[in-house]
Structure formats: structure tokens, C-alpha cells
Specification:
Elements: H1 2-30, H2 39-62, H3 72-92
Length: 94
């Protein structure tokens, strides 16, 4: 059972890193540090966006509209961390 928990933990870490990378690239585009016509970064951003959108879209539908600020990535990260803690507690009782 410990191996499964480790694999789930790694997958959660990958998703969290993708959310952080998406956030950073979005900031670079928003503050015009990097031109949005940069094909390499745009491809990375679109790829990460296509991976995360199926997970973030239901969260966005549940959350109230806050204008320009999107809290769905933060809610996703917190939810994944809670899931990991629950799995660890259920497995090891710690």
C-alpha cells in the first residue's frame, strides 16, 4: 500500500508543479516580461493549460466569480494536499 501512496504523492507533486509553472508563465505574459508571441512559451502554456483545464473547470464553476483573479489553481493545490494527508492518515494512521 505504501508504494501506491508514493505514486499518488508523486502525481500530486507533478500536478502542483504544473499549476505553479502555468501561473509563472501567465504572470510573465501578463506583465509583458515575455512577449505572448514567444512560440516556445506559448506552446508550453497551452499544453499545461490543456492538461489542467479538465480539473480546473469544475472548480471554477463552483467558486464565486472574483473578477480578474482566478482562485481555482489555489483551491486545486489545497484540495490535493488535503487528499494526500487523508491518504497518508488512512494508510499509516499518522
Amino acid at each position: 500500500m505504501g508504494l501506491i501512496i508514493d505514486i499518488v504523492g508523486m502525481l500530486i507533486n507533478v500536478v502542483v508543479m504544473l499549476v505553479i509553472i502555468q501561473f509563472i508563465i501567465g504572470l510573465l505574459f501578463a506583465f509583458n516580461v515575455v512577449n505572448a508571441r514567444n512560440e516556445f512559451l506559448m506552446q508550453i502554456y497551452n499544453s499545461i493549460n490543456s492538461l489542467l483545464e479538465p480539473v480546473l473547470a469544475p472548480i471554477r464553476r463552483i467558486l464565486p466569480r472574483t473578477g480578474a483573479i482566478d482562485f481555482s489553481p489555489l483551491v486545486l493545490i489545497i484540495g490535493l494536499q488535503i487528499l494526500m494527508r487523508v491518504l497518508l492518515y488512512a494508510t499509516y494512521g499518522q
